[in-house]
């Protein structure tokens, strides 16, 4: 098996970094994003899977986790160069005027698509099969997987390895697998060669940096254990769980009523979304040697790009003669830049289906010029974890904000958030919208700079 095929086996289909590369690669070839590699959307198949009994649907999510995880003894074969080769293999020869590198983000995916730019995510997820640890035993999980984390880090000196364990929103998957997020600290020869060969002379490297950190525990050199992640449970509640978590664990028939994670020893870049600045210095040097321009787009939280990217698209559309009056809200990795642009839809990305994302969308709608039509698609993670917002609340929010129509699309509301067909249903839901428009000419980096210099909106970001 060659390295690229092996990497495709090791990488996890629902990972944000994987879907960044996959979506942009297909978009740059004029194709839509087949979410999580499940193939073309199908309403019929989605209806069949989501109509199964609750117990079966819940088991489906766990079974998907088991299939995504590689056998533990194969962890020694995880090769960061193979993973990088898989990423660059998603893209054509170029040359590209812009290449985006850094933290994954649905908003940044839409920004990269507008720029016609490939995206090299700093962090990718691989998973190993783990049937022996309980989701609510973080100390046991850390001890059991620490040798594997150390092994992967030792074999791949260009990455840091984060064993991320979240029994709130990832619970069905943790019943069968363990998450190992590989965060690149150096470019490595594959990504360096990609920039040298496919970034146009004098082109721009756009570095997307999310400075979000999280408590973690070192288990070896460049190997860390992170308990919890960004979702519906605040970081503090993971480490000091109370009545809400006790109720949740009781509903999940857990033998425990609180979490007792290992004592953290430092704050480090958040495993999935956080940017490790070790990569920046190398990019600055590379840009200087080859005459590239380097631009930095920095936020504290991954979702803080969403309102900026939405307003930028609205301005861009209106310069093209489109109304900019349709908002398409896309969650987690159920994004599609091709359909967004063909529909002339303003993209607003929400990280998940939980309270912080709901609050950010509400704040945006309160301050933005009213949209005629608002369509919301919601990702399903397989359980009612703490902080999940019911569909009716989302509908009420957008129905009251839209001038003409606010609706939920591509969601089986009776099955949500155990909607096993959601990844098959969202693309047909986007495709059913009309009218459609030709794809626009690419946005230029200078247009971003001009937009930021003329707007009076207080965006939560830094551009340099």
Topology:
Layout: H1 3-10, H2 16-28, H3 43-50, H4 54-68, H5 80-88, E1 96-102, H6 106-115, E2 119-121, E3 123-129, H7 138-155, E4 159-165, H8 171-174, E5 177-184, H9 188-198, E6 199-210, E7 213-220, E8 223-227, H10 235-239, H11 243-251, E9 266-269, H12 278-290, E10 293-299, H13 306-319, E11 326-331, H14 337-342, E12 346-350, H15 355-367, E13 373-376, H16 391-401, E14 405-408, H17 422-431, H18 445-454, E15 462-463
Identify the overall geometry.
Answer: globular
- In DSSP terms (H or I, runs of 4 or more residues), the helix count works out at 18
pLDDT < 50 stretches: none
First-to-last CA distance: 43 Å
* Estimated share of beta-strand residues: 15-25%
| DSSP helix fraction | 40-55%
Q: In terms of structural class, how would the helical and strand content be classed? A: alpha/beta
Rg over CA atoms, rounded to whole Å, is 21 Å
Major sheet description = 6 strands, mixed
- Tell me the domain tally: 2
Strand order of the largest sheet: 3-5-4-8-7-9
For this structure, the quaternary state is: single chain
The pLDDT mean sits at: 93
Counted beta strands: 15
